[in-house]
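Quick question, first post here. What does this chain look like in 3D?
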Amino acid sequence: MTGGRGRGAGALAWAAGAFALTAAVVVVYRPALGSYFFNDDFQWLERARTFDAANLLDLSRYDHFYRPIVEIYFYLGERLFGCAALPFHLVSLGIHLINTLVLYLFARALTANRFAAALTAMLFCVQDGYVEAVAWVAAITDLLPSLWYLLAMWLHLLFLQRARFVFYVGTMAAFIACALTHESSATLLAMMLALEATLITERHAPVDAKSIAGRALWYVPFAALLAGSLAITYVVNSRSYLIREGHYRFGWHAVPHALQYILSLYIGPRIVASYVAIVLVTAALLWRGTPRARFFVAWIFVTIAPYSFFTWGNVSRYLYLPAAGFALLLADLIVQVEIVAGTWIPRRMARAAAAALGCALAVRFAVFAEKSTMSFRERTRPYERLVAAARNANPAVAPGGSAYVDAADLEDIPEMYRNVAASAAYCRSDIHIVAR
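> Answer (accepted):
Ran it through. Tokens below.
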């Protein structure tokens, strides 16, 4: 009976926590639910109308990115939702909540500490740094690969802990899905290896040539898949304007970009002292931190690295996956504070203080995140205005015809998006916008 009551209380606490985090996410992102489409959204919808599964195998068609699962996502979305923005926003919000759950499960399996896992989930789901990834429909290109990435890490951890082949197969499936969704999958194998190295170090397990060779065999299929993915990425992206025009290249510019991304994670001031503090704290954690803390630091910087080589300004949505590592690190540090405090004050008081600290950080993140979501909502208004104006002035447009709007309705909308945005008003691809 006691065990049953304990399990019931645990399930109730879990449900209450899940409800609280879901409510917090809905509050933060409620402005996004009223947002319209924005920029690249219209191009994805345009491509969805001419989607052909057979074309996914024709690499000669691609000159920017190869992301077949994203193409399939927008094809299904356009078939199910048409050109209604709200359902797409709801799906993005749902995937964000699923990602939070998977991160919780990963943290719980890694730490065997429900409190640390709950802190991780709480500190992740309301961060400000990546708001664009959840609020912008087209940023499903960051949400969806993060789902596969987190699933792969969690299932790989379970495989390392329990040695059950079903977890290995699951990891492989998630790895393949990640590779077919986004180029960020290039860092996944490195983090899988780092995870196993962390577990070995924590357990003080013996390491010799035979054990290394045995473990290496498990990674050979992943290495082969990664090599194939990188080859496709190289072929396709070499045709991209990003490479040809020098918008993405290796160089030292990546260092300040990476530091600026870290600043965005904890919402720090852009002053020299902040950059110095980041370098010093990172060095201290790598030098004196626990194996787990080093792993979390590696997670942050490894997942930031691919995006740091863009020559333009940093982009909010690219912080989604690094934010997971940041949440893991913050939760770990708070638990360490709790342990130290527990040597001076009663354990319950130490736990309460740690929980209060975590909640204070989460509230701070949520306040900034809500403001960023509202700001993104305003960025979609010009498109909402254009579509409404096109519908009102042109209730029906013949195939291949034009929709006429006032020049004022085209303000703040780049020319490259005007026709595709107007097409969304009728959910057709043959509309041309004309200013009166």
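The chain is about 70% helix and 0% strand.
The longest strand covers residues 402-405.
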